[in-house]
Design brief:
By secondary structure, the protein is of the alpha+beta class. It contains two helices and six strands, in the order H-E-E-E-H-E-E-E. Strands 1, 2, 3, 4, 5 and 6 form a six-stranded mixed β-sheet that branches. A hairpin with a 5-residue loop joins strand 2 and strand 3. The two termini are 24 Å apart.
């Protein structure tokens, strides 16, 4: 039986490659003392089931909310680069600046083969 592969640890590993990030977390912090910060969330849904009704392919959407006190453009590019290394494609980039806090919202998509762990588009 093929089980859904949980991509979250791979996402964290890749985000931690971005040296400038002081915080990588799935939860929003109580205080914003560690900046810049990447807060990620994931959503998974079956993309294809095999003849035995096992989930062969899973479509993953990964959202990264990037927060900082200054321009986030270079960090955005670096995050796009490191997630592309594992097969995820940046499908949307939005800005959501709030007061003195800079915010960038990056959305990625990939379809994971739960047997081979390859990521497709």
């Amino acid at each position: 039986m093929t089980e859904r592969y949980n991509i979250k640890s791979d996402i964290v590993t890749q985000l931690k490659k971005v040296a400038e990030l002081k915080l990588v977390s799935a939860e929003y912090p109580n205080t914003w003392s560690q900046m810049p910060a990447a807060i990620y969330s994931t959503k998974a849904k079956p993309h294809k089931k095999d003849i035995s009704d096992n989930e062969a392919l899973t479509e993953w959407t990964v959202k990264v909310d990037l927060y900082g006190n200054k321009s986030l453009s270079e960090m955005q590019s670096e995050i796009i680069k490191v997630l592309k290394e594992i097969g995820f494609k940046n499908i949307a980039s939005d800005d959501g600046n709030q007061d003195a806090l800079k915010r960038s919202i990056l959305t990625f998509r990939g379809v994971v083969d739960n047997r081979t762990l390859f990521v497709y588009q």
